[in-house]
Amino acid sequence: MSEVTVNCEGISSEHEFWGRYLEVVQPDGAGYFGCNLDAFNDALAGGPGWPGEQAVRFVNTACLRSLRQGSFFQSLVEITSQSELSNDFFLNSHKHSNAQWWRAKEGAS
Q1: In this predicted model, what pLDDT tens digit does every residue of 83-97 receive, in sequence order?
Q2: Could you give the CA distance from residue 53 to residue 106 in angstroms, rounded to a whole number?
Q3: Quick one: residue 59, left, alpha or beta (phi over 0 = left, psi -120 to 50 = alpha)?
């Protein structure tokens, strides 16, 4: 399985986040992807925006924690952890490449 890294550094809006996701991941049905959390949830079920057969690693996510007073990031964690693809999504808030990663799904190894 291939892996793609979405660098979230400098993102200051949800619009920028979804633009970066589309630019880097180049998901199936990108033109029909709704660029919101509901659409992302649908994408992980195989709808427009589905990342395909690749692991997606989000790095430098600390800036996402300020969006919607932290609820945006928390929603990303919840959506990915409830998806069948949960083992293929990684969220990280550190800038260093050797930082410890945690999977969106608790206890995944």
Answers
A1: 776 556 666 643 333
A2: 22
A3: beta
Looking at residue 56, its amino acid is V
Domain ranges in the chain are 2-99
Domain 2-99: give its CATH code: 3.30.370.10
d(CA 34, CA 10): 22
The residue assigned the tokens 């990342």 is: 51
- Answer whether 56's CB lies under 8 Å from 25's CB: yes
At 105, list the tokens.
């799904």
Give the sign of the dihedral formed by CA 24, CA 30, CA 77, CA 88. negative
pTM above 0.85, yes or no: no
Helix (H) or strand (E) holding 43: helix 37-43
Judge whether 11 and 63 are in contact, CB under 8 Å. Answer: yes
pLDDT in tens, 58-81: 888 889 999 999 999 999 988 888
Which residues share a beta bridge with 57? 5, 90
